[in-house]
Structure formats: C-alpha cells, structure tokens
C-alpha cells in the first residue's frame, strides 16, 4: 500500500513539512510513504479554455501536473496538508487543482485515476478560529470528490505559526493518523 503526502505550500522545511514528517512516521508501518511538495512542480495556470471538457486532455504542454497526477494515480492513500494563505489554499496548489479539470467528473469525457483510493485533508493556520481551516479541508475534500476519491478524515490545526508550534499538536496529529491507519 502506498501513501502520498502532499505539502500544498511552497515551504519545504516549515510547519507543513514537519506535520508531514510526523504523519509519515506514524503511517509507515502500513504504507510505503512518498512525500512531495507542490513547490517541486512547475505548473502553468489553467487558461479556462474548457477544451478539456470536450477532449479530456489539457491544451497546454505537459508540465508538473502530469508528474503530480501520476503520483496520485499510484497512491492508495492521498494526504494533502495545506497551510492557510490568506484563508485559502496556497496559490501554487490551487493552480494544480484548476489544472486537474481534465480529471473532473463534472463533464464527459474526463480522465480518471484508479479507484479504491482514500483521501485525507489537513489544514493549519496561525490564527485560532478553526473555521478557516475547515474551509480549506472542505476545498480539498471537494477536489478529491470530483476525482472520485472519498475524503475519509480531516485535521484542522490552529495556532501554528511555524515548525516549533507543531510539537504542541502531536495528539491531534496522531488521532488523524489513526484514521489513515484504519484504527
Ligand atoms: C502568504 C501567507 C499568508 C498567510 N495567511 C494566513 C491567514 O490568512 N490566516 C492564518 O491564520 N495564517 C496565515 N498564514 C500563516 C501560515 O498559515 C502559518 O504560518 C503556517 O504554519 C505556515 O506553514 P509553513 O511553515 O509550512 O509555510 C499565512 C502565511 C503566509 C506565508
């Protein structure tokens, strides 16, 4: 079984990366884990041409979308962890979601990823109101849903400004990992 952990922000060694390291350690007995960062992929913006609604193919040249979708296609569990940027998913990952329209089940034909996957959504922010994180996990669940991936667990972490703050969230992160491990 393979788990793909996706850092939806561009910071490779910050709070999101630390949470991903903790999740990876907790699920590694059940899964072969691969961790990636959206910043590792060069992704053009969707131009809104909608040709993929007719062809299920993107009119743009292949780029990082191809590589990241291949990782998602190969995974049994997809775990996206997103920092809040102005109360939203960071633009880099939102650009990826927009470019996944060829895979969206809102139109025919559309591309598909292999079935049987489970999705998990986590969000973190500096502020203390969880509603902002819940909106982000809701957006991630919406993305999964249009790919036919059920969202099987969510984690909302508030009061996380940087990597050092993550150690205070160990219990919440481990409870989230129990869902991923099916406990
Ligand atoms: C551009 C930017 C925008 C941010 N916007 C918000 C925000 O709207 N609400 C909030 O609570 N935190 C916000 N933050 C704080 C991050 O969500 C928080 O510091 C998070 O822990 C950063 O994770 P990272 O270390 O992986 O980048 C923002 C941070 C950045 C860099």
User: What general form does the structure show?
Assistant: globular
Bound molecules: flavin mononucleotide
Please give the CATH architecture: 3-Layer(aba) Sandwich
- Strands in their spatial order, largest beta sheet: 2-1-3-4-5
Question: How large is the radius of gyration?
Answer: 16 Å
Beta percentage is: 15-25%
- The DSSP helix count reads 6
Indicate the topology.
Layout: E1 2-7, H1 15-27, E2 32-37, H2 52-55, H3 64-74, E3 77-83, H4 91-99, E4 118-124, H5 130-146, E5 151-157, H6 170-180
The chain binds flavin mononucleotide (FMN).
Care to give the gist of this entry?
This protein is an alpha/beta fold and 183 residues long. Helix content is 36%, strand content 18%.
